[in-house]
UniProtKB/TrEMBL annotation, chain A:
Coiled coil stretches, renumbered: none
Similarity-based family: Belongs to the eIF-2B alpha/beta/delta subunits family.
Protein name: Translation initiation factor eIF2B subunit alpha
Gene Ontology, cellular component aspect: cytosol; eukaryotic translation initiation factor 2B complex
Self-association state and partner proteins as the record states: Component of the translation initiation factor 2B (eIF2B) complex which is a heterodecamer of two sets of five different subunits: alpha, beta, gamma, delta and epsilon. Subunits alpha, beta and delta comprise a regulatory subcomplex and subunits epsilon and gamma comprise a catalytic subcomplex. Within the complex, the hexameric regulatory complex resides at the center, with the two heterodimeric catalytic subcomplexes bound on opposite sides.
From TrEMBL, chain B:
Subunit structure: Component of the translation initiation factor 2B (eIF2B) complex which is a heterodecamer of two sets of five different subunits: alpha, beta, gamma, delta and epsilon. Subunits alpha, beta and delta comprise a regulatory subcomplex and subunits epsilon and gamma comprise a catalytic subcomplex. Within the complex, the hexameric regulatory complex resides at the center, with the two heterodimeric catalytic subcomplexes bound on opposite sides.
Organism: Hanseniaspora valbyensis NRRL Y-1626
Region (Disordered): 1-71, 599-648
GO terms for MF: translation initiation factor activity
The protein's name: Translation initiation factor eIF2B subunit delta
Taxonomic lineage of the native organism: Eukaryota, Fungi, Dikarya, Ascomycota, Saccharomycotina
Family, per entry: Belongs to the eIF-2B alpha/beta/delta subunits family.
Record's subcellular location: Cytoplasm, Cytosol
Gene Ontology CC entries for this record: cytosol
Domain of life: Eukaryota
Length: 346, 696
């Protein structure tokens, strides 16, 4: 990532040889560099980086580049939902600025385009900072829900939820509460969550996903993160979330989704399996050599289990969600579609 | 007495005025001098004074007047006096006559009023029901019929010198109709010369064919509102634009059905209207046009209540008219400021502008909106899948067209339909024109079965309107369909333009709804139940042979479906039924002779009794296969129904029977998964967002 195309004058066409950066590589690189970075922000970062490299001279070219890299990203990265949310936000941001420039000046003036481009390049870091800031805001809003003596159930690993709990424990009048963590198969983020919470002296226990119902009646609140919050106000999250939602609804336990506003995504799944997934459990292998199962023994690890066809994400309908904690405040599920519409139409 | 005349109905007052007129004129001919409003004594005194003054003046000026002249003068004066006396007598006579007439009239009017009240009381006590607050179908039907008679009759009602001449209502001179109903016309025919009466007789012939007795009856019972309504109609008929007339007619006869087609037709009619409109001198276009428009709309809503889309369009249109001149001027100033040319736009230009705007509205809010919706919704039409829909929806038609022709998808469509409008038939026809081969047509009655047996991907529904609390207001039956779908975990997707969103909040279908003609539910079913079977597909499938028929209906298409019924089962069924009917009639006669009390009890008991008493044929039936037995049982109930049919067709005279033919129902938001509008997809809970931010 050293050389940057410096030719500004003359030919606006960027030849294919300059396309050194693969948006996917960039994206993964950003993610690995900063463990606190969420996927949508990493996507935005990589898009900006790509724009920097290509340095488009017209707005049409800029839009083309963005569209191309978004396509590349969403197609090549598995689990692309929150990534898509980030790309959406960026695309919309760019389009909005370009069109508003157009309407104000009646004609596309090169100066306004250049200044916008520079603004975009310079403020790349702003997105990251903002996203981190938003997590603090969420923690502030969300920790109001936690009371002394609460038992809280969380599912898998979510940065925002952990941030929220830490805020409640350390800053917000030092609340005392206990946390149950479901391990969140098949990614098993629960172990990481357990480590982070115990490091901060929060009482916490790890349970298997299957054990949730056996203790749920003793739980006071459920907090889950989100990969994306959909137009309907439902949330897309680690597999198992929707199960918890339904169980919590049945037992009248409040179910909170914690998500930054840049995770709002213009999707409208109708069913829990209405998401793009690599492994479809409904795809049955009838016969043949592939269908034979070798018994691997008791010690067989589940992660590498090649027989597993679990999808990684599921969709929780808005009916099961009590409230969505965002950096814009506490939202009801139906307010999400308003936010999304405002983002897209105003 | 004079006070009482004032309190009388305006029509009698009007009449009084008319009769006064000749009297006044005759008075004027004879003596124009005395000022009006003097009593007899005053008149005399005034005359004497006048005479004295005249004498004095004459003595002073003409001393040389002959005696003869004086005598002549005196004679003249005497004659004058006599004439005056005669006049007074005449006046008094007329007054007495008038009083008599008035009294008679009052008495008659009172009688009629009382009678009408009684009847109304009777009626209201007879037909008190849950939906009494809605405009009854009868009321609407009668006004409709009057409307159509007004539209179709060659001789329009006109305002003449004698008052309002109502050719369409001249049968009212019939004695059975009260005088309060447009008594002016009635009186004209009674009192005036022969010409008029022959005229009205002529009308009578015309109109008796147009106005059925039901309207007559309604006029008896709902005298005031209806007659005034009719009067309004007939007064305004001359200023109603022909295209609006035509539109009203096609609304009323359900030629144009569905929220979107109705709105489109309305826009087109208004375009014609604006094009043909010329501002009367002395007024401004935007003021006079608004007024003119409201007359048209008043007329239009007599056919059917406005749909929400039409209401929204009209609101926009009126608003647009009101700012018409203003914005036009501004534009002019802007565009012509450089040339310093400030001229007012001519009427033609304004009209052109208006029509252009209507065209944009139509494109933007309906046609393009539909395209956007179609693009969004096409993801829900699965390739190789199966969708189910209800009635007719234009957006859905566009959607299926797009999915089939543009996206080249193959999918099965199940069209659910219902009586009495059978909009689904039209949908099926349209779909088949597009080349759809996999279409299943069925009635709402079989919906539970369809959901049970077929794998359906989603329910797609159109809308009449969407209320701000997320309820869907759509053709009656959609709610049942969505509920069944919800029960089977099948998503319900509503495609609806934002034009159809309304601020209204409603929690049940009865508070505000449209009642259609109850007779629609009856007429056909009686005469030819066969045709119903042909039409209805598997509507009565469960009444027929369950196991046999419905298995077949799984894969049959519309045409095949019909044939199947026609050829085998239906004929069998009909012949069976006829046989059974006869048999049962015989049995019943016997039973009636045996004991009438038993007969009056419930149907189950009857069946039991019959099987108990006359076991012969019954046992034969039970010996046959089990499902045959079922069908027999259903046949029995069916035949009983047909016996009761007599009372159903006679429902208007049956106090204990109400027939409820409602047009729309409400689907609660919990049954709706998704609403697709041109602003994107949203859950039903977020409807207020659209209302607040995007509909202005």
């Amino acid at each position: 990532m050293s050389e940057v195309n410096t030719s500004t004058n003359g030919d606006s066409l960027s030849s294919s040889s300059e396309q050194k950066y693969n948006s996917k590589q960039l994206y993964l690189q950003f993610l690995s560099q900063d463990p606190d970075l969420t996927m949508p922000i990493a996507a935005i970062e990589s898009l900006i980086q790509i724009l920097k490299t290509h340095n488009p001279t017209t707005s049409a070219e800029m839009i083309n580049i963005i569209n191309g890299s978004i396509k590349e990203l969403t197609e090549n990265i598995p689990n692309s939902i929150s990534l898509r949310a980030g790309c959406d936000i960026f695309y919309r941001f760019v389009i909005k600025h370009l069109t508003s420039n157009d309407s104000n000046n009646k004609s596309i003036s090169t100066t306004s385009f250049e200044s916008f481009k520079n603004h975009l390049f310079d403020n790349g870091q702003l997105f990251i900072d903002r996203s981190k800031l938003s997590r603090f805001k969420i923690a502030e809003y969300g920790s109001q829900f936690i009371k002394d003596g609460d038992i809280i159930l969380i599912h898998g690993y979510s940065r925002s939820v952990i941030q929220l709990l830490l805020h409640a424990k350390l800053k917000d009048s030092k609340k005392r509460f206990k946390v149950l963590i479901s391990e969140g198969r098949p990614t098993n983020g629960g172990i990481l969550t357990l480590k982070k919470l115990r490091d901060n002296d929060i009482y916490s226990n790890l349970i298997t996903d299957t054990a949730i119902n056996s203790i749920l009646h003793k739980v006071d609140k459920v907090f889950v993160g989100a990969e994306g919050v959909t137009e309907s106000g439902g949330c897309i999250n680690l597999i198992g979330t929707s199960t918890i939602g339904i169980l919590a609804k049945e037992k009248h336990i409040p179910f909170y989704v914690v998500a930054e506003s840049h995770k709002f995504v213009r999707m409208f799944p109708l069913m829990p399996n209405d998401l793009p997934m690599e492994q479809d459990p409904l795809n049955f292998i009838s016969s043949g050599a592939d269908s034979k199962v070798e018994f691997l023994g008791e010690e067989a690890t589940f992660l590498e289990n090649k027989y597993l066809t679990t999808p990684l994400l599921d969709f929780t309908k808005y009916e099961y969600i009590t409230a969505i904690v965002t950096d814009l405040g506490i939202k009801t599920p139906s307010a999400i579609s308003e936010e999304l519409m405002n983002m897209w139409y105003d | 007495m004079s006070e009482s005349t004032n309190t009388e109905t305006p029509s009698t007052v009007q009449e009084e005025i008319k009769e006064k007129e000749p009297v006044v004129s005759s008075n004027n001919e004879i003596s124009s001098e005395p000022p009006a409003g003097l009593s007899n004594k005053e008149l005399k005194e005034w005359k004497k004074k006048e005479k004295a003054a005249k004498r004095l003046a004459k003595k002073a000026q003409q001393s040389g007047q002959t005696v003869q002249e004086k005598e002549n003068e005196a004679i003249l004066l005497k004659e004058k006096k006599q004439q005056q006396k005669l006049l007074q007598i005449q006046q008094e006579k007329i007054r007495v006559q008038k009083q008599k007439i008035k009294q008679e009239q009052e008495a008659i009017a009172k009688k009629k009023k009382l009678e009408a009240q009684k009847e109304r009381m009777l009626n209201s006590s007879q037909k008190s029901n849950l939906f009494g607050h809605l405009e009854t179908a009868q009321e609407r039907k009668s006004s409709l019929l009057a409307l159509s008679s007004v539209i179709t009759s060659s001789k329009f009602g006109k305002i003449t010198a004698q008052g309002l001449a109502l050719p369409s209502l001249s049968y009212l001179s019939d004695k059975s109709i009260s005088h309060t109903v447009s008594s002016s016309s009635g009186k004209i025919t009674e009192h005036s010369d022969l010409n008029e009466s022959t005229n009205s007789a002529d009308y009578l012939v015309n109109l008796s064919t147009i106005l059925p007795s039901s309207v007559k009856k309604d006029l008896d019972t709902h005298t005031n509102e209806l007659s005034s309504q009719l009067k309004d109609l007939i007064i305004t008929i001359d200023i109603i634009h022909p295209s609006v007339l035509k539109l009203t007619d096609s609304y009323a006869s359900y030629k144009i059905v569905g929220s979107t087609p109705r709105c489109l037709a309305l826009i087109d009619a208004f375009k014609d209207l604006v094009l043909d409109y010329t501002t009367p001198p002395g007024t401004v276009l935007n003021r006079s046009l608004t007024q003119y428009l409201s007359h048209q709309i008043d007329f239009l809503i007599k056919s059917r209540p406005l749909s929400v889309s039409m209401g929204n369009f009209i609101r926009w249109f009126k608003q647009r008219i009101s700012v018409l001149g203003i914005t036009g001027d501004k534009d002019n100033e802007k565009s012509n400021s450089s040339k310093n040319l400030k001229r007012k736009k001519t009427e033609d230009e304004l009209k052109e502008e208006l029509i252009e705007d209507m065209e944009t509205f139509k494109n933007e809010k309906i046609l393009v909106a539909q395209q956007v919706i179609v693009n969004t919704a096409s993801q829900h039409v699965p390739d190789g899948g199966c969708v189910i829909t209800y009635g007719y929806s234009q957006v859905l038609f566009e959607l299926f067209k797009h999915a089939k022709l543009t996206e080249k998808k193959n999918f099965k469509i199940i069209v659910i339909d219902s009586r009495p409008l059978f909009e689904g038939k039209r949908f099926v026809e349209d779909l088949q024109e597009l080349g759809f081969t996999d279409v299943i047509y069925s009635l709402i009655t079989s919906v539970a079965y369809i959901f049970d047996t077929m794998s359906i991907d989603c329910v797609l529904l159109g809308a009449h309107s969407i209320l701000s609390n997320g309820f869907l207001n759509s053709r009656v039956g959609s709610a049942s369909l969505s509920m069944t779908a919800k029960y089977h975990n099948i998503p319900v997707i509503v495609c609806c333009e934002a034009l159809k969103f309304t601020n209204r909040v409603q929690l049940d279908s009865l508070t505000f709804n449209e009642l259609a003609d109850p007779n629609d539910l009856i007429d056909k079913s009686e005469e030819d139940s066969v045709s119903i079977f042909n039409n209805a597909g598997s509507s009565d499938g469960h009444v027929l042979d369950d196991s046999n028929l419905i298995n077949n209906s799984n894969d049959i298409q519309v045409g095949v479906c019909k044939n199947l019924y026609k050829n085998n089962l239906l004929e069998q069924f009909v012949s069976e039924r006829e046989y059974h009917l006869k048999e049962q009639q015989l049995k019943k006669d016997e039973l009636n002779q045996l004991n009438e009390k038993e007969n009056a009890k419930g149907s189950n008991q009857q069946n039991n009794n019959m099987s108990g008493n006359n076991s012969g044929s019954q046992q034969q039936n039970s010996n046959t296969s089990s499902h045959n037995g079922n069908s027999q049982a259903s046949l029995k109930s069916k035949s009983k129904k047909s016996k009761k049919n007599k009372s159903i067709s006679n429902w208007e005279n049956n106090a204990s029977l109400n027939i409820f033919n409602i047009m729309y129902d409400l689907t609660p938001p919990s049954y709706i998964s998704k609403i697709i509008t041109e602003y994107g997809a949203l859950p039903p809970q977020s409807v207020p967002v659209i209302l607040r931010d995007y509909i202005k």
